[in-house]
Amino acid sequence: xxxxxxxLGSARSEKAARYCEGLLQGMAMNETWIGIALGxxxxxxxxxxxxxxxxxxxxxxxxxxxxxHHSWCRFSSARR
Length: 80
Description:
Helix content is about 90%, strand content about 0%.
């Protein structure tokens, strides 16, 4: 675009061409930031899900361990 504006020799056309190029570069930069923001939020949600899953499994293991609180349970499982 800039080359055609320079060939025409018009200052107005040159200015318009530079403005359009600036807009196009700005749009590409905005799309990049939108992609980074969306990707970061997805990774944050995934991280929170992993932490929640880990805590839930640790609680489950602790509850299952507490079910075996009778002394006779230890001896009966050793005979098997």
